[in-house]
Write a structure and sequence with these properties.
Blueprint (H helix, E strand, L loop, with lengths): L1 H13 L8 H9 L8 H36 L7 H38 L17 H8 L2 H27 L1 H5 L6 H41 L4 H12 L2 H22 L5 E4 L4 E6 L9 E7 H13 L3 E4 L1 H10 L11 H14 L5
Parallel strand pairs: 1-4
Antiparallel strand pairs: 1-2, 2-3
Function: Required for formation of the rod structure in the basal body of the flagellar apparatus. Together with FliI and FliH, may constitute the export apparatus of flagellin.
Main location: membrane
GO biological process, one term: bacterial-type flagellum assembly
């Protein structure tokens, strides 16, 4: 047990980064562009949905493409080659190509934005673009080149190519007989079969890359959390910077208490009566009918502070009355500067009536 306690104590001074990053540390890292992000996620989804879009817009794209070739061979084949005619031809081709490829470009752009937003949310920062000499330092570059992250990226690429190669090989082998018969088929059927096989491979590869991208994102998130880990001393230092040194804050609070106590003692001479317990509690009450709706507690305390209140009251001729239940109730239920509650009106009124009688104010 003693050895375990010693080990835990030594961890406080070892500087080992074993603690999860604080929200403040994560927020600062995010402002610098340091977030958990995998470039594989948007790339995989773009590939998958791009091939999927061929299924969705295949008929539309085929119709537009056939119309483009028909227009070229029918409308423009016998035209005179002039500057104006060439501009018209290029404009028509560019417009049709935009209409053909536009859906794929739009889907790719939307998927790319969504793929990044899902990972890191909305983030705009120019911190990664700032010039830093460490980025061009050969030693730092060599460290990154032979780091564990580089090894993991290399193994990840090898695994990716291996899996894709196996999928392509198995798919082509399954269609081996049909591929061997292509030479005997018409051109239209060859194109249709090739397009179908390409789309099939694209969908399969896209799904595999999505699975691998999700796994890569989990790994990147783990690495990001690991890189942000803090030592116990780091957390203490951050707390001091954020909240202030506990010793200094304690001294400030102590000074504030002394100042509040001093102000309270200065108000005791304004009291009409001090109710005691008789030694453990003391509560000073003031009542001014022209300014107050009910008697107000202007000072209270226990033990030493109660003694000081009684002493100041004695020095200033303030009447002190012993009423144990009332003193305890006032101390527990009424804060300094607050009026007494309604259920204490009767008891306090009797005390004040006695005080006024003593002072000759009954009439």
């Amino acid at each position: 047990m003693a050895a375990l306690r010693l080990k835990l104590d030594l961890q406080l001074f070892s500087g080992e980064k074993t603690e999860a990053a604080t929200p403040k540390k994560k927020q600062e890292a995010r402002k610098k562009g340091q977030v958990a992000k995998s470039m594989e996620v948007p790339a995989a989804f773009i590939l998958f949905f791009s091939f999927l879009s061929f299924f969705l817009f295949g008929g539309y794209m085929k119709e537009r493409l056939v119309g483009l070739f028909r227009s070229i061979f029918i409308d423009f084949l016998n035209m005179n080659v002039t500057m104006d005619n060439s501009m018209v031809l290029f404009e028509k081709i560019a417009t049709q190509m935009f209409l053909i490829l536009g859906p794929i470009f739009l889907i790719s752009m939307v998927i790319g934005v969504v793929g990044n937003y899902v990972q890191i949310g909305f983030l705009f920062t120019g911190e990664p673009l700032m010039m830093k000499f460490s980025k061009i330092n050969p030693l730092e570059g060599a460290k990154r080149l032979f780091s564990m992250r580089a090894v993991v990226d290399f193994l990840k690429s090898v695994l990716k190519m291996t899996v894709i190669g196996v999928v392509v090989y198995s798919t082509l082998m399954a269609e081996k007989d049909n591929i061997l018969q292509l030479a005997r088929l018409p051109l239209e059927e060859i194109i249709a079969f090739t397009a179908s096989l390409t789309l099939q491979l694209g969908i399969k590869i896209g799904l595999i890359l999505i699975v691998m991208a999700i796994l890569d994102y989990i790994y990147q998130r783990y690495e990001h959390e690991k890189s942000l880990r803090m030592s116990k001393q780091d957390i203490k230092d951050e707390y001091k910077k954020t909240e202030g040194d506990p010793l200094i804050k304690g001294k400030i609070r102590e000074k504030q208490r002394r100042m509040a106590l001093q102000r309270m003692m200065q108000d005791v001479p304004k009291a009409d009566v001090v109710i005691t317990n008789p030694t453990h509690f003391a509560v000073a009450l003031q009542y001014d009918a022209s300014k107050m709706q009910a008697p107000t507690v202007i000072a209270k305390g226990t033990d030493y502070i109660a003694l000081k209140i009684r002493q100041i009251a004695k020095d200033n001729g303030i009447i002190t009355m012993e009423n144990k239940p009332l003193a305890r109730a006032l101390y527990a239920q009424v804060e300094i500067g607050e009026s007494i509650p309604a259920d204490m009106f009767q008891a306090v009124a009797e005390v004040l009536a006695y005080v006024y009688k003593v002072k000759g104010k009954a009439n």
